[in-house]
Amino acid sequence: MYDSLTNRRNFIKKMAMLSAITAAASMFPGIVFASEQEKGIPDNANLDWKKGPCRFCGVGCGILVGTENGKAVAVKGDPNSSVNKGLLCVKGYHQIMCIQSKDRLKTALVKKNGNYVETPLNEALDLVASKMKESIAQNGKDSVAMYTSGQSTIPEGYIASKFMKGAIGTNNLDCNARLCMASAVTGFLTSFGADEPMGCYEDIDHADYFVTWGNNMAEMHPVLFSRMLEQKAKRGAKIIDFATRTTRSSTASDKSILFEPQTDLAVANAICYEIIQNGWVNKSFVEKHCSFSKGLTHIGYGLEDNFQFTDKPEKIDFEAYKEFLKDYSPEKVAKYSKVSVKDIKYLAAIYGDPNKKVVSYWCMGMNQHTRGTWINNLVYNIHLLTGKISQPGNGPFSLTGQPSACGTAREVGTFTHKLPHGVVMNKKDREMAAKIWKVPVERIPSKPTYHATEMFRAVDRGDINFIWVQATNPLVSLPKTSRYRPAMEKKSCFVVVSDVFPTPTTDVADVILPAAWHIEKGGLYGNSERRTQYWQKMVESPGEATPDTWMFIEVARRMGFEDLFPYSKENHVEEIYNEYRQFHEGAKHGMAPLEVLEKESGAIWPYVNGKSTQWRYNAKYDPACSNGEDFHFYGKPDGKAVIWQRPFEDAPEKPDQEYPFWLNTGRVVEHWHTGSMTRRIPVLHQAMPNAYAEFHPDDAKSLGIRNGENIKITSRRGSCTLPASINERGLPTKGQVFVPFFDENMLINDVTLDSFCPISKEPDYKKCAVKVERA
């Protein structure tokens, strides 16, 4: 009897999983399952399989790379990885196909008399070092800058920080994670006093509801979305899509709710209004574990060069917060958000039900926002008011877009204001860095300098005379790129670019350095759930392609900093990581030792007493909690999380008579970011060969635009011509145009606005005004 019941349960479980897999595979061709992956691997293949993380997005899927005769020939999902459990998306499965591209950078190139000349790497590094020294001697330390990446490894980011801040003594270091995750950072810091999510991916296995805020997970994070679909099939979990356009995620969701761009701020406040009005506040949790604050309003949009902003938080009480929310009743908010009163109440009831577990997921839709910090705060408010936080299946979760935007940008500290632990503004943090780096504390500047947008504005103004760009493609990814291209072509700024492939950014470089791809070097990444993953070198790089870490070290040594960079070429990854771990010792952020990471498919920090901490701030799971209560938000001095009073404010540029459409930009499942890697993978390029502009059918009809016909999108900054897409993959609301930004031949970021959140300094790529005409 027991055996038959067990077999029946297993049969039902397997059928539910099969149903989820079938649904996912039919609806989302971007999801590839382990059994499908292995079809292309010959039965008699004698491959050496080596583990590591995927090169692409911030999910951090575990991969196994099959090597044969010194070459990488196959990839499959790592079944031992708790992240993806053997699944991969279409990008992950095909990732190694690009590294043998014919235009792979294999030698250093130096521009001489307007032409690139192949140059021995050592000679090119000599030139880079001499140009840095020359700029510093003539114009001071802040005349040189480095712009790195959330695709950089932890050792690369660490050495960049040590080189710029500890050796040279300038904070002119920022990274492309400023363009995607900075609002998540400031949101966490202002609400909790510590960065990064308090939960983990296992929340998916426990939640009753998933609410995705402006986040097309089916294409942006397909493996995680497939795990949600599995829970939908197995347990009846529900997915609520809250967005400005209908996407593949909307199609698979139980309910799709569309809102007017920028009004997510108002809807979040309306949800809080309803929670309070209906008595759904978890009073005990709020009284013990929360405080209330408000900041400045009408804080600007960062459109001016050298824009400066400092918030002035002020403590308030619950009654003042409740009074503030009176302007955000569902009836008032529905009038301008285009979300019905019924749907606002529906969302509030989900969060307010004490018997339902809810996880909120978001990515660029909330972070790339002129009020990005605020909207992060407001979603935290919802979870704090209801006490649905830091528990399995209950919590707010900010997803990352790059493989190590957490590990390398946020944890290592490649933002201008950051150090590997803490911030440059804090004396104790500078003293810690100085001690570990063995430099005078006075060498580390106490004030941040340029964030990403302002850094390239400084290049344009001539305030920066040397810039080193590593593992990123800013002349495709920056907002308002049309401003910076001419500046970077000027002789007044010496441009160095380290990359694997030629890009529009290498096109303006004075020196191009050939970089090793991730499996051609050892390294570590940190993913969205605080998971650190380590891999060892799997194959040799072609030609003189070299790990970025080692090129940084070589240039630092040439500039006279040999004593600060005593690492060996063979073991520098391990030596650097062990040095870096000193910054994070302790129960709040301890990093797993390499011997653990060598064996396992990653470990979540804080790693304490041989165990990952999956849920922070909850005393049941987190050994750093020390207040004797069930929860301890130890990032704040009083141990309490902050519920913020944040208003709705309009976008800086809205559609008008001359520019009547909203422009929204984003990604597609086939390509990753600027496409410099995925467009060199034939199967992905063939599947999505070029960018396009999505329109609502009614708008297309009124403009006389047919599917596939070339149209011209124009803003006050520039224009872009590309084919129209009507009733194909996505469906914008009326009055909105959506364009993916992966295509370097169709530079939509020439059109976008360089406004940003004044707190996080993250640009808003989702909202500006454009006009549309037939090309």
Automatic annotation (TrEMBL):
Reaction(s) catalysed (UniProt annotation): 2 Fe(II)-[cytochrome] + nitrate + 2 H(+) = 2 Fe(III)-[cytochrome] + nitrite + H2O
Places the protein is found: Secreted
InterPro entries: Asp_de-COase-like_dom_sf (IPR009010), MoPterin_dinucl-bd_dom (IPR006657), Mopterin_OxRdtase (IPR006656), Mopterin_OxRdtase_4Fe-4S_dom (IPR006963), Periplasm_NO3_reductase_lsu (IPR010051), Prok_molybdopt-oxidoreductase (IPR050123), TAT_signal (IPR006311)
Subunit structure, interactors included: Component of the nitrate reductase NapAB complex composed of NapA and NapB.
Entry cofactors: Mo-bis(molybdopterin guanine dinucleotide); [4Fe-4S] cluster
Function: Catalytic subunit of the nitrate reductase complex NapAB. Receives electrons from NapB and catalyzes the reduction of nitrate to nitrite.
Top-level taxon in the UniProt lineage: Bacteria
UniProt keyword RNA-binding present: no
Signal sequence annotation: 1-34
SMART domains reported for this sequence: Molybdop_Fe4S4
Family, similarity comment: Belongs to the prokaryotic molybdopterin-containing oxidoreductase family. NasA/NapA/NarB subfamily.
Name the UniProt record assigns to this protein: Nitrate reductase
Domain named 4Fe-4S Mo/W bis-MGD-type: residues: 47-103
Top EC group: oxidoreductase
PANTHER family tied to this protein: PERIPLASMIC NITRATE REDUCTASE, RESPIRATORY NITRATE REDUCTASE
Keyword Manganese: no
HAMAP family xrefs: Nitrate_reduct_NapA (MF_01630)
Chain sites annotated for binding substrate: 741
Entry EC number(s): 1.9.6.1
Co-factor binding comment: Binds 1 molybdenum-bis(molybdopterin guanine dinucleotide) (Mo-bis-MGD) cofactor per subunit. Binds 1 [4Fe-4S] cluster.
Keywords attached to this entry: 4Fe-4S, Electron transport, Iron, Iron-sulfur, Metal-binding, Molybdenum, Nitrate assimilation, Oxidoreductase, Periplasm, Signal, Transport
